[in-house]
TrEMBL record:
Record Gene3D superfamilies: 3.40.50.1360
Full protein name: 6-phosphogluconolactonase
Protein family: Belongs to the glucosamine/galactosamine-6-phosphate isomerase family. 6-phosphogluconolactonase subfamily.
Source organism of the structure: Dyella acidiphila
Pfam families, per database record: Glucosamine_iso
Assigned EC number: 3.1.1.31
Role according to the record: Hydrolysis of 6-phosphogluconolactone to 6-phosphogluconate.
Gene: pgl
Domain of life: Bacteria
Length: 269
């Protein structure tokens, strides 16, 4: 659906408005030959006309990265976000042709509820992603049966510690308050979660805007991924990204934007 793609130019977010969307600016994305291109360490925005076109392109890109991981090391590790944005992505990703029996899937964060609860991110992964061809994938949920994330954290740490890190692919989302994973503004352990010297893989998190208590992978873990995507829909969220790009922004997502690593942002209105 290339015709529905808006732009793949590596522009600064604050410069990307509808007026900048059009044909890809190839001159700004240099190719060095077959399969080689200069990898910019700044966030790269890929704009699409709608969620369907975005989900098709992102599902295809993720599948490509998973195939490469399987070819190179025999298996692949994928971490996805919850919330409402990835629903169509999950449906399309589940139909991608690859050796899903070699893929392990987990979440970047989870609400501390069992998968019988409609708020469970795992429930959505099970319903929409672990279907069709992807039914062969292994899923490692972040929720364990314990009253609180603090009570369950040791078991979750053992569980995620058994995964073969780093992640091959991480797909982040973002809430309208600028949170990503469960890095919420005002989160009780936000500082720890964002601290790049903190070697904990997962942490509990509580925040006024989070609803229920959470568990989240730390920023350090997520940034180590071979490929990092940010999946964002809506003009309101594009404005949040533009705010986060301002120097000194305290929005949690700003920590991802300024991490100085390759980040592909898939956005549509
Ligand atoms: O609570 C969460 O919210 C964010 C964003 O969700 P959305 O509904 O605005 O798409 C999500 O990335 C995160 O994984 C989830 O736990």
């Amino acid at each position: 659906m290339v015709g529905r793609r808006r732009s793949t130019a590596p522009v600064h977010l604050r410069h990307l408005g509808p007026e900048r969307c059009g044909r890809p600016d190839r001159a700004r994305r240099p190719h060095l030959g077959r399969g080689l291109r200069i990898v910019s360490s700044s966030p790269q925005l890929h704009g699409f006309d709608d969620g369907q076109a975005l989900a098709e392109a992102l599902a295809s890109a993720i599948a490509g990265q998973l195939r490469v991981a399987i070819e190179t090391r025999g298996e692949a590790l994928l971490a996805v976000s919850g919330g409402s944005t990835p629903k169509r992505l999950f449906e399309l990703l589940s139909q991608q042709d690859l050796n899903w029996s070699r893929v392990t899937i987990t979440l970047v964060d989870e609400r501390w509820v069992p998968d019988s609860d409609e708020r469970s991110n795992a429930r959505m992964v099970e319903a929409l992603l672990l279907q069709h061809k992807a039914a062969d994938a292994e899923f490692v949920p972040l929720y364990v049966e314990a009253a609180t994330p603090e009570a369950g954290i040791a078991e979750v740490r053992t569980r995620v510690g058994a995964l073969k890190h780093p992640f091959d692919v991480v797909v982040l989302g973002m809430g309208p308050d600028g949170h990503t994973a469960s890095f919420f503004p005002g989160g009780d352990r936000l500082r720890e979660a964002l601290d790049l010297s903190n070697t904990a893989q997962v942490l509990p998190m509580r925040a006024p805007g989070a609803g229920e208590p959470r568990i989240t992978f730390t920023l350090r873990e997520l940034l180590q991924a071979h490929t990092l995507y940010l999946h964002v829909q809506g003009n309101d969220k594009r404005d949040v990204l533009a705010q986060a790009e301002q120097p000194g922004s305290a929005l949690p997502i700003a920590n991802v934007l300024r991490a100085g690593r390759q980040l592909d942002i898939y956005w549509c209105p």
